[in-house]
Design a protein that fits this description.
heterotrimer; A mainly alpha; B mainly alpha; C mainly alpha; A: mainly alpha; Helix Hairpins; about 75% helix; B: mainly alpha; about 70% helix; extended
């Protein structure tokens, strides 16, 4: 362990650690907060941190954006970053916004039915409904 | 960025939260540029800071503005999160240094694509070339997902099933 | 927002520019950063800003909802249709060489353009449709609320 903790190692991994902190923040919001909109924001933060992880994997020291010069006159000395993670994340962002909006639409519907967007209150109302249904079933 | 994320946790007003998440997206777009992912930064700036903020504000207009404070014990979630973080931290110890050339990700597929694109496809933007050609199936799938999500939203909240073309006009006037 | 003169004038100037930029991003995506996904989002932002400043009703007149719904499906059809076309002409699915058999590299180029167009159309449609769905539900807010 001791030989691992050189300054080079720490600098090389600092990026990943920041991503992990962001990921933890997002996860904490999702787990601990009761408000549904806030949960969606937390999910977004989580998602973005995953994007960052991928993009930092694709980064090459001294590299540049993976776009070739016009007429494809490629200089063999120029290093390009790995384009593959970029492609994956590019589509993931757009799919992410589509699913986020689906979640927001669900929240709007939940609000219309339960008149609240707090998880705990929805849960209470659910239980109440279940109890009354159980009572009616007992009578019958 | 970390500061923005943590203030999202602390803030109680949902309006502030949504604005902060827009700021967060913009900052991450800057980071993506720094990491040479111009295409991704472009998308993140347009999507995260633009559309998702508008949509979330739209949701807020339909729901409530502020979060109710809950007095649930917060220690278990915190423990779970810290445990996850510790595991991930342990996993990074095995990862190659940031930006190193001999990382597994840089030795196989990436350079291979970069070598083949000029001959195969002749499109300067490697990201577009891979997106639309080499991984065309994937992208078709993504488009299908976006399509499905769009249909889902329409089904959920636009009363599409109930609406007929002739009553569309008065629906626009009097809907709440 | 009837009395926000500056907003309305600036929006009028901006909307055209946004559309132009979206088209540039769409069709220049193989030379510079950009492509169907980004172009679709930017295009949708143009409609959304129009809807925000000049009421939803006017935006719906410019880009009616039935057209939006058709467009969502059209994009996927363009994309999948390209694949089916290449199947029909004896190539594998989504092999763009089918479009220009004598010059496969040109075929690739053209195929990417067509496919990106499909992506762009769908993304525009979905984003605008989602915005319409949310905005049509919103109670009309007065300016003081924000």
């Amino acid at each position: 362990m001791g030989e691992l903790m050189t300054s080079e190692f720490i600098l090389g991994h600092l990026n990943y650690w920041f991503v992990i902190i962001l990921m933890m923040t997002g996860l904490y919001i999702v787990i601990a907060k009761g408000n549904l909109v806030k949960k969606i924001v937390g999910l977004n933060i989580f998602q973005t941190s995953v994007f960052m992880l991928y993009i930092s994997i694709g980064k090459v020291d001294g590299g540049t954006a993976p776009i070739f010069p016009l007429k494809m006159k490629i200089d063999p000395d120029v290093l390009y970053s790995n384009p593959l993670p970029h492609v994956l994340i590019l589509t993931a962002i757009v799919v992410g916004i589509a699913t986020t909006s689906l979640g927001l639409a669900l929240i709007v519907r939940i609000r219309e039915v339960y008149h609240t967007i707090e998880e705990q209150e929805i849960f209470d109302k659910e239980q109440e409904i279940a109890r009354t249904e159980l009572k009616e079933g007992g009578v019958l | 960025m970390v500061v923005t994320a943590i203030s999202v946790v602390r803030a109680r007003s949902l309006f502030a939260i949504v604005t902060l998440s827009g700021v967060f997206s913009l900052l991450s777009a800057l980071l993506f540029i720094r990491l040479d992912a111009v295409d991704v930064a472009f998308t993140e700036a347009a999507v995260g800071a633009g559309i998702s903020t508008v949509l979330m504000l739209g949701t807020l207009a339909l729901t409530s503005r502020s979060e109710r404070s809950d007095k649930r014990p917060q220690i278990i979630p915190l423990l779970a999160v810290v445990a996850t973080g510790a595991l991930l931290f342990y996993a990074t110890l095995d990862m190659p240094n940031f930006g190193s050339l001999d990382a597994p990700a840089q030795t196989h597929l990436g350079p291979d694509f970069l070598e083949r694109i000029p001959g195969d496809i002749d499109v300067p933007n490697a990201v577009t070339a891979i997106l639309a050609s080499y991984r065309g199936f994937d992208t078709l799938g993504e488009v299908a997902v976006v399509f499905t999500a769009g249909i889902g939203v329409l089904m959920l909240i636009s009363r599409l099933a109930l609406r007929r073309p002739e009553d569309e006009e008065d629906d626009q006037e009097g809907s709440t | 927002m009837r009395h926000h003169l500056i907003l309305r004038v600036v929006t009028k100037l901006l909307v055209g520019t946004i559309f132009l930029f979206a088209l540039y991003v769409q069709f220049h995506g193989d030379y510079s950063p950009g492509g169907g996904f980004q172009a679709g989002v930017i295009m949708a932002v143009g409609f959304i800003i129009y809807g925000l400043v000049f009421t939803l009703k006017k935006a719906k007149k410019v880009f009616p909802p039935w057209l939006v719904h058709k467009i969502i499906a059209l994009g996927v059809l363009v994309y999948a249709g390209t694949g089916v076309y290449s199947l029909m002409t004896g190539y594998t699915f989504l092999d763009y060489a089918a479009i220009d058999p004598h010059h496969p590299v040109h075929g690739q180029h053209l195929g990417i353009l067509i496919v990106e167009l499909g992506v762009g159309i769908t993304v525009t449609g979905v984003m605008v449709a989602i915005y319409y769905a949310f905005a049509a539900r919103a109670p009309s807010l007065s300016d003081e609320d924000w």
